[in-house]
Amino acid sequence: MTEREVTENPFDNSSPFDALERSRRESFLRSFSATSVPMMSPVLAVYIWMFVSSPSWQIALVCVLTVLMIGANYMASWFARRQKAVLGSYIFLFSTLFIIGIDAVMIEGLTAVLPLSYAVIVIMAGMLLGSSGSIVIATASAFLWVLAQIVSERCLLPSVTISSTLLMAIIAVITIMGFFFTAYLNHLATKDLQGALDNATYDLVQANRKLGEANRLKSQFLARTSHELRTPLNAIIGYTDLTLRRVYGSLTAMQEDGLKRVLGNAKRLQSLINDILDLSKIEAGEMELIASPFNVKALVDAVDVAVGEAARKKGLEFSVSLAPDMPEKLIGDEIRTAQVLLNIADNAVKFTVDGQVDILIGLVDDEHWHMEVRDTGRGIAEENYERIFDEFRQLSTPGGTRTAGSGLGLSVARHLVHKMGGEIRIDSEIGRGSTFDVILPLWVAEKAHTQL
Ligand code: ADP
User: Fold this and answer.
1) What distance in Å separates the CA atoms of residue 47 and residue 58, rounded to the nearest whole number?
2) Which atom of ligand 1 is nearest to the CA of 343?
3) Residue with the nearest Cα to atom 11 of ligand 1?
């Protein structure tokens, strides 16, 4: 296939199919019109010869109608070039149906080839107008065929009689032409469809490649800029913290209040940048997990300090419990495991107004352990179980407001859990609370030293 320039993403438009189909039909109509002279010329030559050898008004009429049919075919092609292919197709199909029908009635015995000719026209109608058009033409064909039978059987129109040898010759020519024309239609439809399919596949592959490249560049850009942002931000947080600790001298109450706000907002920004950095690393396939033995109790303490304080400040009951049969030391990426648990526990506190948040760490079976976070918060509707893991997705609150956060926490958490070979399950009821259960493969430090 030759290299074609993909000027636009085919998915930007509603569907390229309609335009593709329209242009296919126009090109069919032009091809059919172009074949009318080579197809009709031999038949017209026979009719003219018949008229010359024994003149009759019937043969004269047949000759005139055949010339008119060639004219109608050209008129159809003219319409096709002016984007009026449907009108052109109906002119082409109906004129052909009528003229062939009249021709068959005018010459005695010629109605024998009418079914074959009409069948070819119905196939052409399908190619030009689709299935609904072919049904219209099939109905018209059936009606005209019955009419032709009645007219010729009852001798309602005086038909001309020609010698049986000549009749046989005409029937043979029309029949053989019908066979070859059907083969030509088949070739036309297959070739055209294959071409359209080739082009569509090519566009799809190109668009997909460009999307992949754009996504890779986006992740690379995010990873780099996030890194550049983190360095000055760490300095802001560090120096603000030192100032608040009075390292640089005493502070007035107003100064302290202002600096606390600076610190709070800088930390929020830092967590957002960290999430973006993590996500871009994950998308760029650069997120590496480092497996080493870690103490499960340290995980419990970390979450108790980081989230417990916020929960208690809100007046929530908060508990973290470790199942008695839980091994003391596991192998895994301690920092990333803690990050998952903190993200989920942080949400539990954030979305619970009163009641409690409980965290349970324990075994599921011989090969899995889990971290379960239960809250008595606002709950999540079942249709949103999947959506909350989308990047930057936040569910609006009943009042229509949005809570603080980036909408990245769960997305990052799920990516990490999947990378660790685990899964996150949700069970929730609106107004009653939610349970997030993180299930991870169990690698006990004393037993195994499997690498992630
Ligand atoms: P963020 O918390 O920064 O908004 P997340 O990705 O952590 O982003 O969560 C996405 C959304 O999922 C939240 O905005 C919230 O609407 C919903 N959500 C997450 N955890 C809970 C929960 N425990 N209870 C109710 N809603 C939750």
Assistant:
1) 10
2) 7
3) 394
Per-residue pLDDT of the chain (452 residues; tens, 9 = 90+): 444 444 445 445 555 667 777 787 888 888 888 887 787 888 888 888 888 888 888 889 889 998 998 888 888 888 888 888 899 999 999 999 998 898 888 888 888 889 999 999 999 999 889 889 999 999 999 999 999 999 888 877 777 888 888 888 888 888 888 898 889 888 888 887 788 788 888 889 999 999 988 888 877 787 777 778 888 899 999 999 999 999 999 999 999 999 999 998 998 888 888 888 888 888 777 788 999 999 999 999 988 888 998 899 999 999 999 999 999 999 999 999 999 999 999 999 999 999 999 999 999 999 999 999 999 999 999 999 999 998 877 776 665 555 666 788 999 999 999 999 999 999 999 999 999 999 999 999 865 444 44
Distance 350 CA to ligand 1 centre (A): 8
**Using a 6 Å CB cutoff, which residues line ligand 1?**
343, 347-348, 351, 375, 377-378, 380, 388, 393-395, 403, 405-411, 434
Q: How many domains does the chain have?
A: 2
Per the structure, the complete domain to which residue 446 belongs is given by 292-451
- Asked whether residue 275 is assigned to any structural domain, the reply reads no
CB 207, CB 10: distance < 8 Å? yes
* Top mutation candidate among 356, 375, 410, 412 for ligand 1, by most atoms within 8 Å of CB: 410
Gap from CA of 152 to ligand 1 centroid (Å): 81
Establish if 281 belongs to a structural domain. Answer: no
